[in-house]
From TrEMBL:
It catalyses: 3-dehydroquinate = 3-dehydroshikimate + H2O. This is 3-dehydroquinate dehydratase. It comes from Roseivirga misakiensis. PROSITE patterns: DEHYDROQUINASE_II. It holds the Pfam family DHquinase_II. It comes from the Bacteria. Substrate binds at N71, H77, D84, I98, S99, R108. Homododecamer.
Amino acid sequence: MKIIIINGPNLNLLGTREKSIYGDESFEGYLEKLKGTFTEVDLSYYQSNVEGELINKLHEVGFDYDGIIFNGGGYTHTSVAISDAIAAIKTPVVEVHISNIHAREEFRHLSLITKECAGMITGFGLKGYEMALGYLTSKT
């Protein structure tokens, strides 16, 4: 089973930025733990701060992979283009947010991508990625 985690803008700074919201663990460190837990999954990771690169990656993997875990960061609330890219692919996408977007600023309450995703996990910290993996691996 092939699953990719795709993280959007500013998520390359996990472990160093706004620790009270995002924690103090780097994503790379957390990814190694996920790989150790989900040994049956061919798990890959991609991060970009550039909207077009995220769209290109969705197009690249969206017809061959078994699942995509997507955290669009700030693009979640602004990008019709990313929403359209998710709608155009066949691979199921689970939307993940580390913080509870509904408990934050008003503009973060709206996700333009949720309607194109299998579901959304928000507010459980990095554990949300593990929850998404659990869902995707149970679907086979």
